[in-house]
Design goal:
The chain is α+β, with helices and mostly antiparallel strands. The chain contains four helices and eleven strands; from the N terminus they run ββααββββαβαββββ. 35% of the residues are buried.
């Protein structure tokens, strides 16, 4: 387990210092993977119940789990080659509650290198509280609203991500001849609520894009895609999927900016998630594939 030191925890922000050896966050490159970074940020913030957004045990008792609606991640490519031997990060969180408390909130995060204070990751997530029985959105819990009251308009914005969560984000039409890739959800892909974990969708898309690249279906990308730095990913969560569901990943490379690749994941022809990924063209290292 990483060593987590709480430096600040109040209504404005939560700041922790995290340090440990590099364990279980790698992919085929041998370094950090895009799909694991978001989980890492959430995981260390839940150590000793210091999470700025959710006490999972309390939410379970209150029958009000939290679901993601949208997530935007922007990466500094340096994080994908960060030292295996030891890491030391500052992780800062900031909560933006919905109007008058509401049913949703935005959770902003920034990961910085402790020594240089270089920003390595910016993350923003829109989350909704629902009633587990009715599956409908409910007001944020009282304990949450008491701690994270409406922020002062003078509060400095934590990250520089676009403030686009208020708009409805619909996926475009994917042509019938776009590249498609199929996969099956495993039980090990599930989260605590027994549906596909949010990070797994990013992993599915990167696997699908790798398949397209190796088969010559993409311009500029012709190797294992995990060796190209992922600059950003914007994920809209539309539906749910469960163990043994067969998913179809549709891939569309942007005609104007071919470093942008759009992915629509469908479950039995129903959209589950829509992802917009922006990739760098300079590989991190030489792929063996």
């Amino acid at each position: 387990m990483p060593v987590v030191t709480v430096l600040k925890d109040d209504a404005e922000s939560t700041k922790v210092r995290v340090e440990d050896k590099y364990i279980n966050f790698d992919n085929r490159t041998g370094f950090w993977s895009p799909w694991s970074l978001s989980d890492f940020v959430v995981g260390v913030s839940n150590v000793d119940n210091i999470s700025p957004v959710s006490d999972y045990m309390r939410a379970d008792v209150e029958n009000t789990p939290v679901f993601q609606k949208r997530q935007i991640l922007r990466f500094n490519p340096n994080i994908f080659t960060y030292s295996k031997l030891k890491f030391k990060f500052h992780i800062i969180h900031q909560i933006q509650p919905g109007e008058n408390g509401g049913t949703s909130y935005v959770w902003n995060s920034v990961v910085k290198d402790v020594e240089s204070q270089t920003v390595l990751l910016e993350r923003a997530v829109k989350l909704v509280t629902i009633d587990r029985t009715t599956r409908k959105a409910v007001e944020l819990p009282k304990w949450f609203r008491q701690k994270y009251h409406d922020p002062s308009p003078k509060m400095e914005r934590l990250n520089d991500l676009p403030d686009s969560f208020k708009t409805i984000f619909n996926p475009p039409d994917f042509p019938s001849d776009c590249y498609q890739w199929r996969t099956t959800v495993r039980y090990s892909d599930l989260d605590f609520n027994m549906h596909t974990h949010q990070s797994v969708y990013t992993k599915f898309c990167l696997d699908a894009i790798t398949s397209a690249a190796l088969k010559g279906k993409l311009r500029y990308f012709n190797r294992d895609i995990c060796f190209y730095p992922l600059e950003s990913v914007d994920i809209t969560f539309i539906g749910e999927s469960f163990a043994e569901d067969e998913l179809l990943v549709n891939i569309l490379q942007d005609m104007c900016d071919q470093t942008i690749i759009r992915c629509l994941i469908e479950n039995n022809r129903k959209p589950v998630t829509y992802l917009v990924l922006k990739l760098g063209l300079t590989t991190l290292s030489v792929s063996k594939l």
